[in-house]
Structures are given as structure tokens and as C-alpha cells.
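FAQ: What does the model actually see?

It sees only this:
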Amino acid sequence: MLVQRLGAPSDFDPLLERVRDARVVMIGESTHGSYDYYRLREQLTRRLIAECGFSFVAVEGDWPDCDRVHRSVTAAPGGALEPQLALEQFERWPTWMWANAEVARFASWLRAWNVERPEDQRAGFHGLDVYSLWESMQAIFDYLGEEDPTSLEAAQDAYRCFEPYGKRVEEYGAASRFVSARCEEEVVRLLARTREHALNDGPDRFSAWQNAEVVAGAERYYRAMVAGGPDSWNIRDTHMQDTLDRLLDRYGPDARGIVWAHNTHVGDARATDMAADGMVNIGQLARERHGDDAVALIGFGSYRGTVIAAPRWGSTPEPMVVPPAREGSVERRLHELMPERAVLIFGGDDQPGWVTETADHRAIGVVYDPSFESWGNYVPTRLGDRYDAFIWCDDTTALHPLSVPAVPGEMETYPAGV
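And it is asked to produce this:
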């Protein structure tokens, strides 16, 4: 194991040497609201794009919202001249995950980087998640209305299937368990039609296809979520990995992607108690599909600090104090052993035993209650098996949300907020 103290961006040199040949680099976070994670992740991502030629960033966010950011950072026709304007249009709660000053700074850098390059060499920004059923449906309507009005019927049939439930997709999920209210057939027909269009080249066609994939994934997700168990989680992470693979195909045989998501998605589930519960995640799926050597998984963690989170689903986010990590945890051990900031690169014959031993590893979602720290908010983890590298920040501070309205989601996701 190599330990490198972090101070300047150049201190990432050993980590870049470790991951520069990977096809996929996934960079996690143990909270969705810590400034230090976003800032360090930005520094590392800039270098991966500028020095290693990575093709795009794909985040744990909705496709339609992130597509507006993509159009801005690639200077595509119709895209906002300032990426922050695209980020300020994020409306689905929790908006602060991506509509924050830290992402706005990175997006501005990415646009400046891109405009100096030919269009086919510009790095993109995309969303991987599955939640945006209605937004993706509207995007499909907009596309078909302009490009292929004869195909609107398939989209209208799918829309009418969901329409009785309004935007309360949990009611659709509940109804689908007892009556023939499932929209699978209409959604499958819509997906097949948009796939046909996507065979022809063009970013708008690809985006329409991806929105149809989101509608199909969301239908499965919300139906499974009502039933309980791990199925909804697995549907979501499989959808995110499928989206990542479509992006790699879209960008070409030499494409390389960077993923930003929570540690619970990035860190290989097989090295946690998630495996015993029948759950998979994108870190595991990427290793299985592309091979361990082609995938680099990087986690984040801290001992204490402050974080932006919400006390309840859909409520207003606020700065919260993250108490010192509990005894026996990964974070307590690293607090005792590591400098204030460091990167750990796993592998080799000199790894200490604790790297592969199971210990509790903190995971804070968008919904957080610090009083749960004594019994919750931790995932049993074999750190060196879950990640290829780990970025340590002993003390963290809360990130800076943009001033955007926080519109509650349809219902709480499972598990909450990661």
C-alpha cells in the first residue's frame, strides 16, 4: 500500500500513474454534501481529462438535467453560454447534489477546456440515474414533435398509461401489484421505436434513446420499490451501469469515462454486507463487465466535519455537524494513522492487515441524522477489496448550494439518499 500526503494537485501523481490506463475511473464520496470531496474530485478529474484523455464525466444525476449541462460545457447548439445557468435549472430534490458552486466551477473549466478543441474531442457531462420518468417523457415528446411526428403515438400511449397517477409514481407501483395497470408494453414499444432512430447518428437521437431507456428503467424501478427488498436498488444500479456502457460505445472504441457517485455505488458491493443482502452496484458491475484492470474504484472518507443534508426527505437542506467517527470504524483508524489529507493506493505485498479486515465505513446520504451515528450510517467494509484507492480528509466542510428551488421528489428512494 502506498500513502501519499495531499496538499497540491500534483500530489495526485502516484494515483494518476495507477489509474491512467483504466477505461473507467469511478470516484466516490461518503456524503453528497462535503465541499472537500467535490473540490478534490474536481482536481483529480481535471487531470484525468487534460493529461490522460478521458472522454466524459457521468454522474449520479438525471439524464435530462445533466444533458443541459452537457450542451453547455460542449458549446453545443442551444446550450447555455454559462454552465451555471444550466445547473440552476435542476429542480428535482435534492438539487444541491449537482446545483452547487463546486460543480459550477468544474463545469466552467470544462467548457473553457472544450471550446479550444474540435467538437469530436470535447469531454461530455452526463447523468446516469433512473428517476426522471416524467422529465424524460417530456424530452421524448419534444424530440419526436420536431424530428418524427409519426412516432408520437408510441410516446402518447406510454404517457396515457402513467397519466392516471399524475406524478405520484408510487401509486402506479402499488397499483401494478394488484391490477393490470403496468405500463410495460407501452414503454417497451416506445423504447423499440426510439432505438430505431438512435441507429442513425446524431446527439439528439442518442439523447432521445437514453430518455426512453430512463422511462423503461423508471417503470421497473418504481414497480419494484413498492414491493420492497433489494430489487429496486439493483434495477437502479444496473440501469446506471448500462447507461455508462452506452456512453462508452457512443464515444467510440477508445472512449474512457469518469463516474461521480456515492461510495455505496462506486465501492465494489462484494466487499461489503450489501452482497449478503443480494445487492449489486456499479463498481461491482463495472469490474465484472470490463475486468479489474480496466476499472479503478476510488473512495472518499473523513473523520468529522460539516455537511449539507436534510433532516427529512424533501425538506430544506442545512449544514449539519458530522461527529467524530465511532470506535472500530475505518474512519477512526485512518484518523489515528493518516495525515490530515492523504491518498491510499491499495495493492502489493506490503498491505497492512487492516486493509482487508472488515470494519464499519461511514456512509451519509442526502437525508441525515447525526444522532444515528451510534448505530447507523455505516457499512461493514473490506477497504482494500472495495476500492483500488481511497482519498482521506480528516476534517471536511459543507459544500455551497446554488440558489435554486428544492422541489421534492415523488417519494423517498431506497435506501434513502445515496
